[in-house]
Amino acid sequence: MNYEDILYAAVDGIATITINRPEVRNAIRPRTYEELTAAMHIAADDPTVGVVVLTGAGDKAFCSGGDIRDQQARVPEVGRKHMRRLFALSSVIRMMDKPVIAKVRGYCVGGGNEINLFCDMTIASEDAKFGQTGPRVGSVPIWGACQLLARYVGERKAREILYTCRLYTAQQALDMGLINDVVKAEDLDGAVDSLCQEILDKSPQSIRIAKLALNAGSDQEFYSSFFPNSELLASIYGNPENMEGITAFLEKRKPEYRKYRTSRA
């Protein structure tokens, strides 16, 4: 595949995959998902790679989620194809027998935070921001946040994050258990490399088994809920309430959802 949206490099046992759309805060469109999936497969199949680093280009964002412009034309049949695309990416991240480390600068929100959840570990710079955006833009984070977030931060906090769409600082994310470490921006590359070197010094077959064992419980929750919920989400794509969130975002205004809470008596 000729990459347009990402960069891929493998050096000295570390594969680095970079979402390369800084002009839109590394928002991901269909091609981005497909390129990320292809690159993850390359890293997974490369016997010289022991750890994968996933990051975003520039200093504004790791990933700001799905590209809202792409969602303007999303209807149920397009949404179902989109769900299969999501599943392919999350599956290769979780099923590869190598740790995937998220290196986060700036915004890590929406689908970007769900990608963060699929990674094994996360190190963030002090200026990072984390959160979900689904109900703000007429969607639902059923790709991973509804299944995995509570495992990291507890169910009460997960409900707060999902329902309110608040943004949280890197320190808040660390305190709630969402990420592993926070460092100064100028120290981020070094901190991630140091973690990679620690991993590369360990037995690859032991890490392989440990990752599969750690994922076993959450895999059951994720796979059993993703498919029915993806159909539910796809079924609302393009309806007025869904489009209100998308239109409001593009028009840079606050969405008007209160009108959808009306008496039907």
From TrEMBL:
Signal peptide location: none
GO cellular component: cytosol
GO BP terms: menaquinone biosynthetic process
Domain of life: Bacteria
Pfam families cross-referenced by the UniProt entry: ECH_1
Coiled coil: none
GO molecular function: 1,4-dihydroxy-2-naphthoyl-CoA synthase activity
Xref: InterPro entries: ClpP/crotonase-like_dom_sf, Enoyl-CoA_hyd/isom_CS, Enoyl-CoA_hydra/iso, Enoyl-CoA_hydra_C
Family label: Belongs to the enoyl-CoA hydratase/isomerase family.
Name of protein: 1,4-dihydroxy-6-naphthoate synthase
The species this protein was found in: Pollutimonas nitritireducens
